[in-house]
């Protein structure tokens, strides 16, 4: 699996202040996590405990006031349980708080009244993340496409940034390549889409995000383009599909139902090792979805990005995003001061 996907803030480089509103909301209906209940769908496997630190370092390049910053942080999902271990902040920050968004997503919100020229402020939170493997269905032939996808999956049937599922070429390819007949199970049909994408698009990292049509034309792409193309074809075939964002990587999930009409989100690894129907991944899930509405931006966004704003910043602000895995020894040092 590639660790070099071009996901915005996990490059961890200093950036300039972003002059846009802080509060964000994802498009679509409220999406409560679906439970992994029985053997007909994916089931939870081995669980591993890890510790992660997420936060922000801010430097004022002049006198600044009314500073607010937000960053996405891990939240609970069926395969992930999250616990706050410790909050850390410098004295010049007013407070830390948590902002729940419309879907199961959370932001860390940081506020400072004012920072002087050259002054640095820093805040971070240490999380314990218990992440479980997702094991593939034992009998996937018992799964089928939803005849009427539930309302909370319908946003994942529509186009989203860089996923042009309504484009005539994408539709034409889906019609030509993915007419499998009745002798192939629905689960196998999705796997054939997965195989086709991995065969036609060779993995190659590019720091620029490309639309999935560009990946088709060039025959190259990384985890973003491969995931986008797989998601686009699924949506054309009326299969809900979405992106999952973790530090330094993204992968897709698709939706199917079992014989009791219970829904299941099923992951696969579009870029890197061949892994269809399950997932072994220790890095925490930060977001699921790929079409977000951010106030101040007319166009829907591919993901919820960190935001940094100020009412007054004469020389501007610079920031460095913190996001790293900690060892147990580091956690002990940070929590006991020894």
Defining key terms:
single chain; 338 residues; alpha+beta; Immunoglobulin-like; C8orf32 fold; 2 domains; 5-stranded antiparallel sheet; 5 helices; 18 strands; 16% helix
List low-pLDDT spans.
8-36
Summed over residues and divided by their number, the pLDDT gives a mean of 87
Order of helices and strands: EEEEEEEEHHEHEHEEEEEEEEH
Percent of residues in β-strands: 35-45%
Termini Cα gap: 36 Å
Q: Helical element count? A: 5
**Shape, principal axes of CA atoms:** globular
Q: What's the CATH first level of the largest domain?
A: Alpha Beta
The side-by-side strand order for the widest beta sheet comes to 1-18-3-8-5
Tally of distinct domains: 2
Q: How many strand elements? A: 18
Rg result: 21 Å
Main beta sheet? 5 strands, antiparallel
Helix content: 10-25%
- Kindly report the CATH topology of the largest domain: C8orf32 fold
């Amino acid at each position: 699996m590639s660790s070099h996907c071009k996901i915005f803030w996990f490059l961890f480089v200093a950036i300039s202040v972003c002059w846009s509103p802080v509060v964000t909301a994802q498009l679509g209906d409220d999406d409560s996590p679906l439970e992994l209940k029985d053997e007909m769908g994916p089931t939870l496997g081995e669980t591993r405990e890890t510790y992660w630190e997420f936060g922000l370092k801010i430097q004022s390049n002049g006198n600044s006031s009314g500073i607010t910053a937000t960053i996405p942080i891990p939240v609970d999902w069926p395969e992930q349980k999250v616990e706050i271990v410790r909050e850390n902040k410098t004295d010049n920050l007013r407070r830390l708080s948590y902002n729940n968004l419309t879907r199961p997503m959370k932001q860390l919100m940081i506020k400072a009244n004012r920072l002087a020229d050259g002054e640095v402020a820093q805040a971070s939170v240490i999380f314990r993340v218990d992440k479980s493997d997702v094991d593939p269905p034992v009998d996937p032939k018992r799964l089928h496409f939803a005849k009427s996808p539930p309302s909370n999956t319908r946003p994942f049937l529509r186009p989203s940034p860089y996923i042009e599922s309504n484009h005539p070429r994408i539709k034409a390819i889906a019609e030509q390549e993915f007419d499998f007949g009745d002798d192939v199970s629905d689960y196998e049909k999705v796997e054939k889409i997965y195989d086709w994408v991995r065969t036609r698009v060779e993995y190659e990292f590019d720091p620029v995000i490309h639309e999935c049509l560009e990946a088709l034309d060039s025959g190259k792409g990384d985890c973003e383009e491969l995931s986008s193309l797989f998601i686009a074809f699924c949506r054309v075939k009326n299969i809900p599909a979405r992106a999952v964002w973790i530090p330094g990587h993204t992968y897709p999930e698709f939706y199917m139902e079992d014989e009791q009409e219970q829904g299941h989100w099923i992951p696969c690894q579009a870029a890197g090792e061949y892994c269809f129907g399950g997932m072994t991944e220790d890095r925490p899930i930060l977001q699921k979805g790929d079409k977000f509405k951010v106030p101040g931006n007319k166009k829907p966004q591919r993901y919820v990005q960190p935001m940094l704003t100020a009412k007054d910043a004469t020389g501007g602000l610079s920031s460095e995003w913190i996001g790293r895995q900690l060892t147990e020894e580091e956690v002990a040092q940070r929590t006991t001061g020894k």
